[in-house]
Amino acid sequence: MPASAALAAPSAAAPLHVTALPATPAVDWVETTDPPSGITAELPGKATVRQATASIDGKPVNTRAYIVETPDGAVGFAIHDMPGDRYPLEDNLQRIRESYMVNTVEPLNSSNVRKVTFDGRPALDARLTSETEDETLTGFIRLIEDDEHLVQALALGPAANEKALKAMHERLLASLRIP
Question: Considering the entire predicted model, what is its pTM?
């Protein structure tokens, strides 16, 4: 199943300091902006935009996911139009894991879950894994609370590409700007 499925809308159910951008494959990174929110980030190519609406507690939550598929896996960010502090970040991580399983029929596990801050905002980092009979996926996710949004940054792909996925995720986080 596609690694980008983890950027789907949630189902109903120490500040980052970067002194140099990590090494990444030789691709042109493109600044990508979510027009409604003004949130921007660089991605390793032109993003595919996926939009969805989910009902959480009977209220519609619109989501826009900006995803780039690379030879190493998928990388992107998603904006959920709801206050980021509406639910604990751990609950939002669980919703993303459940949504992934609904979309792919594959389990998505999280480990090394830790609370951090991003530009003064509460955030949650986790390592992700998904094992099937055919392959093992691995990746990294950061969920960020914002006054009007829940922001998700993710890189996910074959476990053999973990080093490249980590570099793409770090580059994405280094370029992410929330107004």
Answer: 0.84
